Amino acid sequence: MMTPDAIVIGAGPNGLVAANYLAQAGWSVLVLEAQARPGGAVWTEESSLPGFHHDVGAAFFPFGPTSPALRPLDLEGAGLVWRHAPLDSAHPAKDGTCAAIGRDLEASKQNLGEDGPAWEKLARWHAGTRDQLLDALLSTLPALGPMARFGPANLLRLAAVAASSGRGFAERTFRTEAARRIVPALALHTDVGPDDPFGAIVGFMLAMLASSGGFAIPEGGAASITRALLKRLGDLGGVVRTGTRVARIVVREGRAAAVVTEQGEEIAADRAIIADTSAPALYLRLLDPGVVPTPVAESMRNFKHGFGTFKMDWALSGPVPWSCEDATRAAVVHTGDDLDDLARFTAEVRRGALPRDPYLVIGQQTLADPTRAPAGKHTLWAYSRVPSVAPGGWEKVKQSFADRIEARIESLAPGFKERILARVIVTPKDLEAMNENLIGGDLGGGSAQIQHQLFFRPMFPYYRYRTPIRALYLGSSYTHPGAGVHGACGRNAAEAALRDEG
Known about the structure:
FAD/NAD(P)-binding domain; globular
């Protein structure tokens, strides 16, 4: 390949989306990936037993079929098939109650009982505004045009949610404890607890997406998303080189001009370099300290990461025997007995303790995609939020904490342990080794708390994908709008580069 117009550092989903948008615009693109395979945390492996296909990171995709950054790429035309379970999100508790929501409005209403009308009001509002809302939330800030199309009344309604804690919104909106735990439990996909100020919006958005696009599951595993992005890029002439770690970015006369690999190869870029890396890695490792403004470097040294993640995968002889019937039909199951249980869990993680009865996000992919396991068998995927560093070290405590996770599932699904054929434990340290953007097992590209969002992601004033270095852009989940396989961070960075080049 001759000198490319653009180099993209990192072949995660945002890097591949950025590369696709640049290639669609006619640019020649080279993607350099440090690992031996592309995809980052969007990949699938037979990690437990032969024939059982487990997603190594992201596993269900509320933005997948609906994101305005992904839809123009027509990944379905490149072979991607989305599957759905009958329900999208179930929330069983030890008292026997089980709230459940999904794309089927009538089923959700029936499940929520006296809170059905309140849910219907929210879901119908979202159904009528979803595309405008996603365009506004996923566009480059300040997104004045998309915000105007969303409309002032809808903005005010959304702002009222954003001004609430998860607990405040839940108690104001719903009557039953079962319904009240839905939004705060969904917020704990990140590091936002039920009592955090301005914390309701994260869980609210996931709940609304469950009601429309649903928690979609790619047939064959998350790697199918990566393969579709690679096919699209290959068709456009883009090149991906794996096993090629970028050691530093060369800056000449204030402009990003080239990269140097760990093997010592210098590769020039004629127009732009886009980094699908962590913000601290870009500013503190890839760039010479002399070209990084002191306030930027200081901000990166104090960067606020989200919770760590402890993940498990199981090969099962049959489906999970949930006591709650709705949980047997849900793509994702969330454990959390009530708001106080979720608050207790959050406090334990924040003080550096391993949760004694961990909150869990549990993925049941084989309910919708039986190709992932041998006939009659099932996979199970789950994670809990944890401190990045465990007391005594992860090697010492990982087996006992895995037992705690299994005990919590067993309390809601008696007989679960009897169906385990094999289990795989993935600690925060393991996640970072797999994908160095997941620092300390942080899945979100930094904290999702409000003070680290919008104009402060990753820092002010560099929130619009540009950096202090000309022709250098940051396009990872460390930029707005953050985590979620929506591709918006990569698309927006690519569009910034294209605008700057006219």
